[in-house]
Design goal:
Oligomer: single chain
Radius of gyration: 19 Å
Structural class: alpha/beta
Number of domains: 1
Strand content: 15-25%
CATH superfamily: Glycoside hydrolase/deacetylase
Helix content: 25-40%
Number of helices: 9
Shape: globular
């Protein structure tokens, strides 16, 4: 999955900015893209991609599954520390729905401006999204790789935890969310040693081989293989149908992954329709409820 790590142009070289520009300009010819805007506002590079809204015939199939499966949906937004105005837009949307989000905050990127944006809302909790969201791998993008010095990684994670505790206080919960969904065995051991409550990644929910509970997302609104924007109704509904159908738990917890900086009008139109659709058919829960349920089962 190809992701952009930063839109803060004060920290990018000319080559980085040129590569970023070329990546997005190439999307103009993409048949799924209706509109693309690139603007500079201070140090922020603002990119808006609007796909065509492709409607799906999968809603009836999802409806039939929800008749026989008990499902809890919850929402996580990754990469907090970038694009504060887009983050504000997302929090406004979910606040009107009385829905709480788990926000995956990058410790080295969040600042007083992030705190100011969040201070206007109460419908969120903060988790730790690595430390810098910097790629250290030549293969799959990853901040935490097996060849990194374990002590350096440990100190970064401890520093990240300290930053988030100081900045967000009680809104911060000690949950670790690895960038790009990649985490090596040594880092697994480190976060367990540092007594993180849980790991939130992007796979099935489980207790991993290191004895840590994982409360993961399984469905992504963004198609990272094609234009890095909302993938369309079919793209999301197919994921939902597959994940719910393949799970036989009494209650199925499905995490829906968001990226505020990649969300546009079309994505919010889908979310509006989806939330209206599942009303009375499924539950919406917050991350703290899921975490408490796990802790109760472990007692």
């Amino acid at each position: 999955m190809n992701r952009i790590n930063s839109y803060d142009i004060s920290k990018l070289s000319f080559h980085d900015i040129k590569e970023l520009e070329e990546n997005y300009i190439s999307q103009v010819k993409n048949k799924n893209i209706k509109k693309l805007d690139i603007k500079i506002n201070g140090n922020d590079l603002l990119i808006n991609i609007e796909p065509y809204y492709l409607k799906s015939d999968k809603w009836d199939e999802l409806n039939n599954i929800l008749k026989i499966k008990k499902v809890n949906f919850w929402f996580r937004d990754d990469d907090v520390g970038f694009a504060n105005e887009k983050l504000k837009e997302m929090l406004c949307f979910f606040n009107k729905k009385s829905i709480n989000l788990l926000l995956a905050a990058i410790p080295s990127k969040v600042d007083v401006f992030t705190k100011e944006t969040l201070s206007k809302f109460n419908n969120y909790l903060i988790g730790q999204h690595g430390y810098s969201h910097k790629n250290y791998s030549d293969v799959e993008s990853a901040e935490f790789t097996i060849d990194r010095d374990t002590l350096i990684v440990k100190n970064e994670i401890k520093l990240g935890n300290k930053i988030l505790e100081k900045l967000f206080g009680e809104k911060y919960i000690k949950v670790f969310i690895p960038p790009w969904f990649e985490i090596d065995d040594n880092t697994h051991k480190t976060i367990k040693e540092l007594k993180y409550f849980a790991l939130s990644n992007y796979w099935s929910n489980n207790k991993n081989k290191f004895g840590m509970n994982e409360i993961n997302c399984q469905v992504d609104l963004i198609n990272w293989e094609n234009a890095w924007t909302f993938g369309g109704e079919d793209f999301v509904l197919n994921q939902l149908i597959k994940e719910i159908s393949s799970c036989n738990d009494d209650y199925i917890n499905i995490g829906i992954l968001l990226h505020h900086e990649r969300m546009g009008k079309i994505a919010y139109q889908f979310l509006e329709r989806f939330l209206n659709f599942i009303e009375g058919k499924a539950n919406i829960v917050d991350f703290n409820t899921l975490l408490n349920n796990i802790e109760d089962r472990n007692d």
